[in-house]
Every structure is written in C-alpha cells, then in structure tokens.
Design goal:
Layout lengths: L5 H5 L6 H7 L5 H11 L7 E5 L5 H8 L3 E5 L3 H10 L5 E2 L13 E7 L7 H11 E14 L4 H13 L13 H6 L3 E14 H9 L2 H4 L3 H18 L4 E14 L3
Parallel strand pairs: 1-2, 1-4, 2-3, 4-5
Antiparallel strand pairs: 5-7, 6-7
C-alpha cells in the first residue's frame, strides 16, 4: 500500500461497486426529517445535487421524499450501479471541487458518506456558488457505534491487520469549512441499527476503500479471519449492527 494517494482511495470503489450497492447500510427516515428541520424547507420539490452519490443509496431516498435529484459521481462503476438501481436519474460524472452547474441553481447539495473525499477549500465555495440564496450544503456519515464491545473488538482487529486503516469516523473539521465560508451551521446526531448477516457485514467491510485497494489474496485473508471471529461471537450468523449518524448542515444567507 506504500505510495497510495488520497485519490487512489477515492477512486477505488469502481471494482467493488456491486458489493457496495448490496451491502452498505442505508439511512434512517429520521435523517431526512432532521434535514428538513435544519434547512428550514421541505425536500419535496427541492432541486438537489447529491455529490459523491456512489451507487445512489441517498439519491433514491431523497427522491422518495419528493426531491428533484441530480446525482454527481466521478466513478464509472458506481454510476453504472446507480443507474441500474434508479433508471432515469439525471447523472453527471464530476466531483465536488468543480461542479458543472450554473450559479444559484440548487436548493440543496448533499454529500452522503462522501465529503471526506473532497478538498473542502474548493468544494465548499463551489457549493456556495451553485446554491440559491437560503440554500444549504448538507454532509453526513454513518459510522459504527464503537462503544458497543463487539464492534470495538472488530475495529481493533481490522486496525491491527491493515495499516493504514481508518475506522468509520466523521472528520473533526467538518464544521470549520462550512463556517469559514459564511454558512450558518447546524448539526444533529442520530442512533439507529440494522439487522444483517455476518457474511453481509464482512462484505460491507470489503467494500471500503482500504480493502478495495488491496491485492485480492491479502484482502481475502484478512476478511476470512474477521468472518471467523464474528461467527465465534454470533454463531447463528445474524448481527444487530448499531450505527451513529452525524449530520452537518450549512445554510447560505437568504
């Protein structure tokens, strides 16, 4: 893994796009209630750019709330999965630092599990440029609740087996770039959980960038060991996986 750059990790998802689509967690309905509360407007009828849309997990949920969503995704593999799951969704192949949209054309720009792949010094001003007055930039992350002992143990095993490795943590600097560019900041945190299988959980691990960049034999060895450890903890093969979801919203001046 020596010599890998941030972009290598960011662009590693194409080969694992189908795995990502099948096994990554979704988002609870309460997230979108909070999004409406913090932005001060309903999602129904809003013009939304979902940047770093990936396979469209958030895109589809925003559409279900009545938003008019354009997905923005640089990876061809991820974009293909998105269009297969949500045919007809407008999709633009681009990243957040150079949004190919006119000034003041969006009500909301979202980054679901994706803002850490951008350069905030470029992405936030781009969002402000494209947002209408009173529009909002919203960024959020799911991360496992590592206060739960089995999740903490799993994290520690993966950290020991794979270096460098980032556990799911929201970057601490999220609020700073939003506030620095004159956005009114609001934040929320939600707790939720999903029931999945050990095999599904291991497949979700394998869809993360730090595994996607590994040689297959190394990745398979680490994930097989983690599967065995999890099956020792959950012999029936089922897991209740708790998550913490952090949401930051920056609202432009009206």
């Amino acid at each position: 893994m020596t010599g890998l750059q941030h972009r290598d990790y960011a662009m590693s998802f194409g080969p694992v796009a189908a795995q990502y689509q099948a096994h990554r967690p979704s988002y609870p309905p309460e997230l979108f209630d909070e999004l409406e509360r913090l932005t001060g407007r309903p999602l129904r009828g809003a013009d939304v750019l979902d940047v770093g849309a990936g396979t469209g997990i958030a895109t589809r949920l925003l559409q279900a709330r009545g938003a008019r969503v354009t997905a923005v995704e640089p990876s061809a593999g991820m974009a293909a999965q998105l269009l297969a799951a949500a045919p007809g969704t407008p999709l633009v192949r681009a990243g957040g630092e150079e949004l190919p949209f006119h000034d003041s054309t969006a009500d909301l720009i979202t980054y679901a599990q994706a803002f850490h792949w951008t350069d905030p010094a470029r992405a936030v001003p781009e969002a402000v440029r494209v947002l209408r007055p009173g529009g909002a930039l919203a960024v959020w992350w799911n991360h496992p609740d590592s206060s739960v002992p089995w999740l903490a143990a799993s994290r520690d095993r993966l950290v020991a087996a794979l270096t460098p490795y980032h556990p799911h943590v929201r970057p601490d600097s999220t609020a700073e770039p939003l506030a620095e560019h004159g956005l009114r900041l609001a934040e929320a945190e939600l707790a939720w959980e999903r029931r999945t299988t050990v095999d599904g959980l291991v497949a979700e691990f394998g869809s993360r960038s730090h595994f996607a960049v590994l040689p297959a034999e190394v990745r398979d060895r680490i994930l097989a060991a983690e599967r065995a450890a999890l099956l020792a903890e959950f012999p029936d093969g089922w897991v209740l996986q708790p998550w913490r979801l952090t949401l930051s919203v920056g609202v432009t001046a009206g």
